[in-house]
Amino acid sequence: MKLCVIEGDGIGHEVVPAAVRVLRQVIPELEVVSAEAGWDRFQDTGEALPEETVKTAKDVGAVLFGACSSPSYAVAGYSSPIVSLRKRMETFANLRPTRFLPVPTARAGVDLVVVRENTEGLYVGDEHTDDAGNTGTATKRITRAATERIAHTAFRLARNEKRKRVTIVHKGNVLPQTDGLFRRVAYEVAKSYRDIETDDLLVDTAAYWMVKEPARFDVVLTPNLYGDILSDMAAAWGGGLGLAPALNIGSQVAVAEPVHGSAPDIAGKGIANPTAVILSAAMLLRHHWNKPAIADRIDAAVNAALSRGDYTADIVGDKGMSTAEFADIICAQLG
Ligand code: NAI
Ligand code: MG
Q1: From the alpha carbon of 313, which atom of ligand 1 is closest?
Q2: How far apart are CA 147 and CA 145, in angstroms?
Q3: Are strands 165-170 and 197-202 parallel, antiparallel or unpaired?
C-alpha cells in the first residue's frame, strides 16, 4: 500500500506525521511518498501546488493532506492548493462525518455525515473584479451531471452505513436556477433509493437546526459552499475542529484531510490535536483501501483514549498532552 503525504503549512507539519505513525502501526508495509504544497512552498518557489506534487498524488491515488494557509486577500499567482488538488484529482465528493466523541466539548446523540459536492457551486474559481476594483463577481455553477453523481454518493453512503435519511440542503427559493436544479435532481436520484427517507431544508434553516438540534440530521447532501460551512459548524458538536475528519473521493482516488486549517495561532508548539488527521486516515482505510476492520481499530483506539480523558490542549486547556504524546498513546493502544 502506498500513500502520498502532503503536510502543507502550520500544524500540518505536526499532526500529519503523528497520523502517519498511527497508520504505520496498523500497516507496517505502508510505503510513504512525501510531496509539497502550500503557502510556504509558494513563498519559496512561486508555486503553491507544484506539478510534481499533482503527478505523485495522481500516481499514488491515496493522499493524506494536512492543511494550507491561504491569505484572505488576493495574492497574484496564489490560490488554495487543496481546492486545486481536489479539482485536479477529480475528487467529486467530500465526506465530513461528525459523531459524538467522548470529550466534554461534544454533544451526545450526534451522528451525521455532510456529503459536500466538491467540484462546482461557488468554488469553480471563476471570480473577478472590475477595472475600478469596485465590483467583485463570482460564478456559481450547478450541473445535472455533478449533482447526480454527488446525490448517488450520498444515498449509497446512507445505505452502506445503514442510515435512514438524506436531507438535501440548498437555497432554491432565492437561487432557483442553480440550487433549485440541485434540489430537483437530488429528488430525482432519491427515487432509486426508496429505502432511504429524503427531505430538504433551506440552508439558513438547516444552520438553525444544526445548532439547535444536531441529532435530527443523518446524511446532509449539499453544494460546495454550504457543505464547507455546515461541516465546520457540525464539527463543534463532534468535540471541535481538532477532532473533525474528512475524505475527498473520486472514482479511483481519495484525499484524506482534516476539516481544520493550518492553525497559525498554535503552530510550532507541538500541542495540536492529531485526532482529526488520524480519523481522516481511518476514512481512507474504510472508503478507499477497503479495510474497514483496520479503520474500526483506529476509531476504537481514539475512542478509548478519549474515554480515559487523554486530551490535548484544545479540549482540556494548558494541562493537555502534546501531539506526539497523544499519537504515542494511540500507537500503544493499537499494539
Ligand atoms: P483553523 O481551522 O486553522 O483554526 C481555527 C481554530 O481552531 C484555531 O483557534 C485553531 O488553533 C483551532 N484548531 C484547528 N485545528 C486544530 C487542531 N488540530 N488542534 C487544536 N486546535 C485546532 O482555521 P482558521 O484560523 O480560520 O484558518 C487558519 C488558516 O488555515 C488560514 O490561512 C486558512 O485559509 C487555512 N485553512 C485551510 C484549510 C485547508 O487547508 N483545508 C481549511 C481551513 C482553513
Ligand atoms: Mg472549511
Answers
A1: 20
A2: 5
A3: parallel
Residue stretches of the chain with pLDDT short of 50 = none
Q: Is the pTM of the predicted complex or chain greater than 0.90?
A: yes
- Residue 314 is inside which H or E element, if any? helix 313-316
pLDDT in tens, 128-174: 999 999 999 999 999 999 999 999 999 999 999 999 999 999 999 99
Q: 62, 253 in Cβ contact below 8 A? A: yes
How many A from CA of 284 to the centre of ligand 2? Answer: 19
Classify residue 129 by burial, with Cβ atoms within 10 Å: 0-12, 13-18, 19+: exposed
Residue to probe by mutation, ligand 1, list 16, 70, 260, most atoms within 8 Å of CB: 260
Q: Is the CB of 70 under 6 A from ligand 1?
A: yes
Does residue 196 contact residue 158 with C-beta atoms inside 8 Å? yes
List the grid coordinates of 216.
Answer: 435530527
Cα dihedral 96, 102, 103, 107, rounded to 10, equals 60
The residue behind cell 429505502 is: 195
Which residues have C-beta within 8 Å of that of residue 239, sequence separation ≥ 6? 100, 101, 103, 105, 106, 306, 315
What is the three-class DSSP state of 150? helix
pLDDT digits 0-9 by tens, 256-271? 999 999 999 999 999 9
Cβ pair 231, 98 in contact under 8 A: yes
Domains for the chain: give ranges and CATH numbers: 1-92+241-335 (3.40.718.10), 107-238 (3.40.718.10)
